[in-house]
Design a protein that fits this description.
single chain; about 210 residues; alpha/beta; 3-stranded parallel sheet; two-stranded antiparallel sheet; 7 strands; globular
Length: about 210
């Protein structure tokens, strides 16, 4: 039942995602497996979900999450990335990253976790860490069998994808075309980025 609910929710998300948003689909057991990567075509994405095979196997959640975060870092792309994790929270890892290490990496890379928990024989004890990650990274969490409308999850994810733009005028003394570091913060969010300063103002540019 939870498998069907998860598939239905993902199909709905793929059909209603904002234009230009790309998805990568991974599964994990003892290793992380890529199903499709950086795809935005709903039909291709739906096919990737239909092709999944469910197996009763060991689950290495923490090490798989660490590997996925490493792959995201290796891409070195300046894009907003979110993780939607659907699992029962089971983790058979004997050795691997600690919970605090994973949380620190997620915070450093500013990646929120959205968690969809699935009960295994009515056992939810393994989901505590997953929902902690979601809460502490600014995401959200739901239990699959408690959801009444899958559209609620899609709407929340789509709202999170709405980017805010801040425009800062550059005063004339700084309009020299040089490259400088710009830093800023808003609430719990902060950023630091190297930018090239303009030679003229935006208003003057519009007059050309």
């Amino acid at each position: 039942e939870n498998r069907a609910a998860a598939a239905s929710l993902l199909q709905n998300l793929f059909l209603r995602h904002p234009e230009g948003e790309e998805f990568s689909v991974y599964t994990y057991g003892t290793t992380l497996q890529m199903v499709c990567e950086e795809e935005e075509d709903p039909q291709t994405l739906s096919g990737s979900i239909d092709s999944l095979v469910y197996e009763n196997q060991s689950s290495y959640f923490k090490t798989s999450l660490q590997e996925l975060l490493g792959r995201i870092r290796d891409r070195k792309e300046q894009v907003y990335t979110r993780l939607l994790v659907i699992c029962d929270g089971a983790d058979d890892t004997e050795y691997g990253p600690t919970e605090s290490e994973l949380l620190e990496q997620l915070r450093e890379d500013k990646i929120p976790i959205y968690a969809l928990g699935s009960r295994w024989e009515q056992d939810t004890s393994g989901l505590a860490f997953l929902f902690t990650l979601a809460r502490k990274t600014g995401g959200a969490g739901w239990m699959l069998d408690d959801l009444e409308e899958h559209t609620d999850v899609t709407e929340i994810l789509n709202q999170d994808a709405q980017m805010l733009v801040c425009q800062v005028p550059v005063v004339p003394p700084l309009r020299d075309g040089s490259r400088k570091m710009v830093s800023g913060s808003a609430g719990d969010l902060s950023f630091s980025e190297e930018v090239q300063l303009p030679l003229i103002s935006a208003a003057d540019l519009e007059l050309w």
